[in-house]
Amino acid sequence: MLERNTTLLGIVLLGAVLIAAPHLVSFSQQEILVLLTINVLVVASYRLLTLTGEWSLAHVVMMGVGAYGSALYAKNFGVPVPLAMIAGAVTAGVTASLLSFPLFRMKGFYFLIGSFAAGEVIRLIWKRFTDPFGGPKGIQRIPGFPEIDLGFVRIDFYNPENYYYLALIVVLASLWVLYRIERSRIGLTFHAIHWQDKLAESVGVDTFRYRMMAFVIASFFAGLAGALYAHYLITVNPNQFNVDTMVYVLIWAIVGGTTRWYGPILGVVVLTIIDEVVLRAIGVDQLRPLLYGGILILAILFLPNGLESLVIRASEALRQRGAGSGANGTAAAPPETRS
Amino acid sequence: MPEFLLQTIFNASYAASYMALIAVGLVLIFGVMGVINFAHGDLYMVGSYAVVFLYAGFGLPFLVAVAAGLIFVGLLGILMEIALFRPLRTNPLGGLIASIGFLLMLQSLVVLGFGLRNQHIPPVSQGGITIGGAFLTYERLGVIVAAVVLLGSLWLFLKRSKFGWALRACAQDREAAALQGISINQTARYAMFIGAGLAGVAGAMTAPLVSPTPFMGHTVIVTAFIIIIVGGIGSLEGAVVAAILYAFVHTFVTTFYDGVVANIVGLLLMLAVLVVKPQGLFGVRERA
Predict the structure, then answer these.
(1) Domain range list for chain A
(2) How far away is chain A from the Cα of B43, in angstroms, using its nearest Cα?
């Protein structure tokens, strides 16, 4: 009973923080907040892919496929933006399903490099073909999300605060879907393939199909994140989706940890806050790679299971102390850590 | 037309030379330690900046700057081995991830020290030789000669010297080598020094030809990966042959179409090898 109350309290607190967030920060930080919300979806979808044990370097490019797709559908074909966003995400999923055929002949390091090559080919195609992809300059003046007029109130999505709420709704809904998938039979099969792929095959699991499924679902949500990104920034170009960006996604996931659903989210949130606080204090933007590189090395050396391992240890320690006065719901710990 | 063709062949030979230096170092490191060094392109970049600093900045003789680049980058390699790869020996992807962190730090430090702009390096020599109407500058010839000499001596070192035997033994089977009394840690240090040093030399020798930037390692590491995959991860001979193959394909496609198409062709070549023959054209059995 007490445990349930703690969980409920945690959810209410988290909800309050999420709703209040844009009002607690400055205007430039609101922009960062929107990007952070979108990045949460990027890392959470990336984690779904890593459940099968494969680490892809094409995830950010898949995000780009969603961004380019959505931008082109909306701009060149006049598709309404919300529909274009979904169509962009579907395009990313379809692209992933096509790439599965060559890529899932590889495993481990070979998959890592193969996925990089496939992603880079897509990126270079955007760069090379000015029509319709706009070449190195990319696509500009992408239609924004249409404003909602409820008569008494008008919601204009050029305002970062309003876009934040839009992104928040989309991202929370996506996280819920990703969570349900992981808890379903499909998700359990992903885990089985990761730990015992030969054994899974021997009991009749088509590992190729499940690897492909993970890749397609992850790419669909990455594409959705990309679409959110495109209609927020109003411009996309090939450099936004290069391997540098991918390295940051990798760092968020590794520093956060990938065995729990909240691990990568913890990684992206904590690192973005550190980034914002430290770099603003120093004022030298060029130090960012040094900071991230240093954190990555320290994490892999001293905290190989990521920040989530701290949360797991903390929550176990709390439970050890008995149900006693354990209801102080530490702010850093997301509400539910049990299965 | 024949002059043009010959010129393209010269350009390709130059590209093949420095790519072979980089790829052989990467393969050596992987062979001995089982680590894919993502920072290899940035070790090359640091080699270039040794020339920026010592030759263009301090006015030291070019060859002194190159030698300093080799030694400094080699020592960076030893630092990586001691600080990163050794503690992560039991973590299969750990070394790779740590090397990504290391490359970010290297890039950032070079940006802080030298700025973002392209560095201009005064030409080492204006001259060159003309063969059959095609022109080969002494600078490019120097890179080709350096590659042949260094890779030749590496080959002799690996085949003849005691350390060379130890290195190859480690590359074949680390546990068995350790049981024979070979120190894995010491061998790994040698491999890191040689592998990183080769990348440093390649960067230093090509610096006057490419106008270095802190991000030049990017294209280099991608190229190096294509080469080691095509040649077969872990095969030194394969790396050399694949470097020549890739350089010729890339140079000819660049000359007759454009650079981006050449990059796409290179990546598709790697994908094709990965799909059809993942052990590479000269591959040894997969180890990982």
Answers:
(1) 30-240, 242-334
(2) 15
Using a CB–CB cutoff of 8 Å, tell me whether B1 touches chain A. no
Q: How many CB atoms lie within 10 A of CB B44?
A: 31
In angstroms, the CA A33 to CA A24 distance is 11
Report the share of chain B in percent with pLDDT over 70. Answer: 98
CB pairs under 8 A between A and B: 112
From chain A, the residues in CB contact with B279 under 8 A are none
B100 to chain A, any CB pair closer than 8 A? The answer is yes
Contact A56, A104 (CB under 8 A): no
* Shortest Cα–Cα distance, A112 to chain B (Å): 11
Question: Which is nearest to A17 in space by CA: A241, A336, A332?
Answer: A332
pLDDT at A151 over 90: no
CB contact A118 to B (< 8 Å): yes
**CB contact, 8 Å: A179 with chain B?**
no
Strands (E), chain B: 128-131, 134-137
What are the beta bridge partners of residue A149? A154
Residue B32, pLDDT above cutoff 60: yes
Alpha-carbon gap, residue A310 to B198, rounded angstroms: 41
SS3 B134: strand
- Contacts of residue A48, defined as CB under 8 A and 6 or more positions apart, other chains included, come to A178, A181, A182, A190, A214, A217, A218, A221
Q: What is the pLDDT of residues A29-56, one digit of tens each?
A: 888 899 999 999 999 999 999 888 888 9
Number of Cβ within a 10 Å radius of residue B76? 23
Distance from CA of A189 to the nearest CA of B (A): 23
Instruction: Please list the residues that pair with B129 across neighbouring strands.
Output: B136
Q: Indicate the pTM of the whole model.
A: 0.87
Give yes or no for residue B287 having a pLDDT over 80.
Answer: no
Which positions 53-82 of A are in contact with B (Cβ < 8 Å)? 55
A105:B278 CB<8 A: yes
pLDDT at A2: 62
B260 — contact with chain A (CB < 8 Å)? yes
The CB-side HSE value for B209 (13 A sphere, CA atoms) comes to 17
- Mean residue pLDDT of chain A comes to 86
Q: Do A297 and B105 touch (CB under 8 A)?
A: yes
Beta bridge partners of B135: B130
Chain A, window 215-274: residues with a beta carbon less than 8 angstroms from a chain B beta carbon: 243, 247, 250-251, 254
B111 → closest Cβ in A127, A286, A301: A286
Predicted confidence (pLDDT) per residue in A164-214, tens digit: 999 999 999 999 999 999 888 888 888 888 887 788 888 778 888 889 999
Asked if A128 lies within 8 A of B261 by C-beta distance, the reply is yes
Stronger pLDDT, B170 or B202, i.e. the higher one:
B202
Contact A87, A70 (CB under 8 A): yes
CA distances to B135, B167, B217 from B38, in Å: 35, 21, 10
